[in-house]
Each structure stands twice: as structure tokens, then as C-alpha cells.
Amino acid sequence: MPGSVFFPTEVSMYDTEKAFYRHYEYIQKENSLYSRWFQKRGLSYPQFLILDAVLRRPEGAEPTALAEECFMPKQTVTGLLDQLERAGFIRRERCETDRRRTRVFCLPAGDVFVTGIMEELDRHEQAALASISAEDMETFNNVYAAIVDGLEKHLFSDPS
Q1: Are strands 90-94 and 102-106 parallel, antiparallel or unpaired?
Q2: Would you state the pLDDT for residue 159?
């Protein structure tokens, strides 16, 4: 029965009009923009995140570490690695001392591909930021850092 304790007339999990909530909307939109942009270049955004993380580790990366860094389930990373391996961008090697472990390495084709995409992306990002002053960017970064620091402090200092 609407309007009762069990069926409230208004559902209010959180107030999406709060200023802080707006940054979630911007993050979602930014991720959507990047996802569409990478898709046009033949790569999913998650594939790019994994390939970029592997490229930054010339010593190789373990799939579990990639999953943690990219905030993805290990089974998702395994599927992405399968795709990237079939595309000729990465290779996997078994650890000689522990056969249960593997390391992932970027192949030259993956290096060339992701470096080219990053150079193109950097040009677009620089153009997008061109109208923002250095002072405004510094303020933005300082405010964002303060938000993240505050979240870290309050999310993990509360014993509940």
C-alpha cells in the first residue's frame, strides 16, 4: 500500500542533486567518452587499460596484479588477456620457479599500437584542456586531491 512504512511514496536512497554527486556523473560521462573513442580504434576501454598496464611493466605483470590495478575481476582480465594475445599484442610466460604463476609481457605490436593511441589521445586531451588556465587546473587538482584524501581518511578510519 503506497505511502505506508513498507511502500514509501518517495524513494530516496541518496540525493542526486548534491554537488558531490555531480562528480560521479562526470566520471561516468568521461568513461563513456573514452570507451566510445577506444571502440572506434578497435579496442575496448578495458582492453586498453590492461594493455597500458602491461606496457608500463617491461619486467612483466601478473594477471592478479593487473586485476587489482584495473579494478576488474581476475576472470575478466583472463578473457581480456586472451583477446590481446590473439591480437598479437601480448604474450604470457609461465614462471620457471612456480608453474602456477604467469607473467604477461607486451609484444612490439602491442607497444606500437598502444603508444600510437596514447599519442593521439594526448593531442585530444591537450586540445580539450587548452582553454583552462594553469591556475584553474592547479585548483582543480588540489580540490580533487583533497576530496580523495578526505574520502580515504573517512572511509577507512570509521570502525563500522
Answers
A1: antiparallel
A2: 67
